[in-house]
UniProtKB/TrEMBL annotation:
Stated family: Belongs to the class-I pyridine nucleotide-disulfide oxidoreductase family.
Protein name (database record): Dihydrolipoamide dehydrogenase
Domain Pyridine nucleotide-disulphide oxidoreductase dimerisation intervals: 360-467
Annotated residues for binding of NAD(+): 192-199, 284
Cofactor binding note from Swiss-Prot or TrEMBL: Binds 1 FAD per subunit.
Keywords recorded for this protein, A-Z: FAD, Flavoprotein, NAD, Nucleotide-binding, Oxidoreductase
Protein source organism: Desulforhopalus singaporensis
Binding site for FAD: 55, 126, 155-157, 324
GO molecular function: dihydrolipoyl dehydrogenase (NADH) activity; flavin adenine dinucleotide binding
Length: 503
């Protein structure tokens, strides 16, 4: 079984991270001939430099922290952790996924599959020569040209740099280089307390081998989230021993013999010097168009750090873009959704518009924090009157049984009769799964009473969601009045601000 590789592909995908891979597979569904060009590691940041690798490390660190707990009748003696073994496990996890991706591509290659459609993988750096042609610079410096009717640019993002800090990826790392770390540093300074900074602060503090300093120029960790969510994350990090330093600008990191010296300048005027053995810079990620040849398509990216796409992920004519390279949030689920949608649009298969509404996310802290839809902060900014109920996991039987009561469910609804669900923030065990139960209801535009027609199993973490919803309609089994710190219902209106519901 075989077929000749096409002279002109239907689709050429630049970059095989989550966006490119998902897009290529959708084109295969339509019987198209696809060329996938990948410059480095298949899976991109989604697998090797980001999501899967960091989540593997997070899982191992969380299990290690739980094994170290002393509140459940057992005590583990002689527990130890070897960073080299942890790193090996992380690389193994990434490789497992990469091999699945490669196996699928190989199975549909023209020399093994007789159609319809095919997948051809080429390794090298892709650069546009024209709207129908890309040049690949292969690892051995040879060049090859690929012609295609459509292109999907899915080349991802790169970590933002600080001008005067030299990332050697030996002692001073960013997320692209952190897998080079060879042992637990005694002291680690993390610059940037966003998602990546807080996730790595969680990982290293959970292993208990490293003193972690977490520095941000803002006044809060994950500054874009609601204040109570940010406070919750900060409290948990501090409990794990992380030293959090706010309102501080990094002046420089000077490598010394055997250690690093980081100088921080504070808003109030004073400075502080921190000694560390390793530094990790996590101050955001940005799109980098250099070397893609976009100028050969008449696309000017000077002075912008995003690639503008239209509502169908199209940049221009037959050129589409998806994933981190676009101006939308940098997440695997968004990258995959855009990659799939772009391909559907180019081949005339779309049935409804692309929607970013109700996109759920999970931040892997200890415990994890999940989010979907609008937060209180977003509602206030948009001047949308809302009602919000807060339910602490300390009241949830399953969380009590798990001895894991740090966490909460917080649901925001419209302040009207229908009480349409606008958003949820939740922290604690299993939130990465439970968030979807609310996301589904939001997609369907359901109100609280509609949702409460379902009966939840017992004892489960989702019962927290059920009770939180019941609180909004004054039907909860436990009432806020006797438990004012654990159960709360408030409403907010642009004119009146917050009003507590007392009963
Ligand atoms: C530490 C970390 C943890 C994360 N955790 C999560 C998480 O838990 N959940 C989540 O949803 N998201 C997470 N993310 C974000 C997520 O990884 C990205 O949003 C996602 O990988 C973006 O997918 P992409 O396909 O757009 O780009 P990428 O995954 O970056 O893939 C782009 C690919 O393009 C290749 N490439 C670049 N230029 C060229 C070229 N000219 N020619 C050929 N190939 C090229 C690159 O080598 C790369 O393989 C995390 C990110 C980081 C850094
Ligand atoms: N679990 C997940 O879903 C997950 C995990 C990791 C990454 N991601 C994605 O990756 C993206 C990038 O993550 P990130 O954490 O690098 O970015 P971020 O935007 O989440 O956070 C950057 C942080 O750095 C701070 N900062 C910026 N410049 C600074 C400076 N000069 N000095 C000190 N602090 C500074 C900001 O105040 C902010 O707190 C995220 O936005 C997210 O989309 C997602």
């Amino acid at each position: 079984m075989a077929q000749d590789p096409p002279d002109i592909f239907d689709l050429c995908v630049l970059g095989c991270g989550p966006a490119g891979f998902a897009g290529a597979m959708r084109a295969l569904d339509f019987g198209k001939h696809v060329c996938i060009i990948e410059a480095a590691e298949i899976g991109g940041t989604g697998i090797m430099w980001g999501a899967l690798a960091s989540k593997t490390m997070w899982e191992i660190a969380k299990d290690y922290a739980i094994a170290n707990k002393q509140d459940r009748g057992y005590r583990v003696h002689g527990i130890s952790v070897d960073y080299c073994e942890v790193r090996r496990t992380v690389l193994q996890a990434a490789k497992e996924k990469q091999y699945q991706m490669l196996s699928q591509i190989e199975s549909y290659s023209p020399n093994r599959w007789d159609g319809p459609g095919s997948l051809t993988l080429k390794t090298g750096w892709g650069k546009f020569l024209s709207k129908n042609e890309v040049e690949i610079t292969c690892p051995d410096e040879t060049r090859e040209r690929v012609k295609s009717r459509y292109f999907l640019v899915s080349t991802g993002s790169r970590p933002r740099k600080i001008d005067n800090i030299l990332l050697d990826q030996e002692r001073i790392f960013d997320s692209d280089g952190i897998l080079n770390l060879q042992c637990f540093p005694e002291r680690l300074v993390i610059i940037g307390a966003g998602v990546i900074g807080c996730e790595y602060a969680t990982i290293f503090s959970n292993f208990g081998q490293t003193k972690v300093y977490l520095v941000d120029h803002a006044k809060r960790v994950i500054p874009y989230e609601d204040e109570d969510v940010s406070d919750f994350v900060k409290k948990n990090l501090a409990r794990s021993g992380v030293k959090i330093i706010h309102s501080a600008k990094l002046r420089n990191i000077l490598p010394q013999a055997g250690y690093l010296q980081a100088t921080l300048d504070f808003r109030e005027g004073h400075s502080e010097i921190i000694e560390a053995d390793a530094a990790f810079i996590s101050i955001g990620r940005r799109f980098d168009p250099s070397g893609l040849g976009l100028e050969n398509l008449g696309i000017d990216t000077t002075g912008t750090n995003i690639l503008k796409t239209d509502e169908n992920c199209c940049i221009k004519d037959n050129i589409y873009a998806a994933g981190d390279i676009t101006h939308n949030p940098a997440l695997v689920n968004i990258a995959e959704m855009e990659g799939r949608y772009a391909v559907k649009h180019m081949f005339g298969r779309t049935r409804w518009p692309l929607s970013y509404r109700n996109m759920s996310t999970v931040m892997f802290f200890y415990p994890a924090v999940a989010a979907v839809g609008l937060s209180e902060k977003m509602c206030r900014q948009k001047k949308i009157p809302f009602k919000v109920a807060y339910y602490s996991n300390a009241m949830c039987n399953r969380a009590i049984a798990m001895r894991a009561t740090q966490g909460f469910v917080k649901i925001v609804v419209t302040d009207d009769e229908q009480q349409r669900i606008l958003g949820m923030r939740a922290a604690g065990p299993q939130v990465s799964s439970t968030i979807m139960s609310i996301a589904h209801f939001m997609d369907q535009g359901q109100g609280v009473l509609d949702v409460l027609k379902s009966i939840y199993p017992h004892p489960t973490i989702v019962e927290g969601i059920e009770e939180c919803l019941r609180m909004l309609v004054k039907k909860s089994i436990f009432k806020p009045y006797p438990f004012p710190d654990l159960l709360k219902v408030k409403s907010w209106h642009p004119e009146t601000g917050y009003v507590d519901e007392k009963k």
